[in-house]
Amino acid sequence: MNDPSLDKSKYSPLNAKIMKSEAKLLLGLGIGIALGAAVGYIMGTDKKEEWLEQANEFADKIKANVKSAVYKGKSEVEDLKEDIDDIAEIAKKELAKQ
To answer: Is-above-0.70 flag for pTM?
Structure first.
């Protein structure tokens, strides 16, 4: 009944954590290899200039969208600050009446 294959000490939380870490590492390596192979293939083709131009255009669009979102977010925060200041003034006036 003392079967070593059923030894629960092998499946401790530490061992599970190590196994998860190793799985993440292997997944990361696999993704890196796949991306490296894809980039290598693209750079070896005749259309690499076209692809690089498209990638740069896409990056520029993303950058413009991020800048727009940041500007809009800042504007919304300023509007919210103004609203809070207005509410605080109204509350002060109401408290002063009492």
So the answer is: no
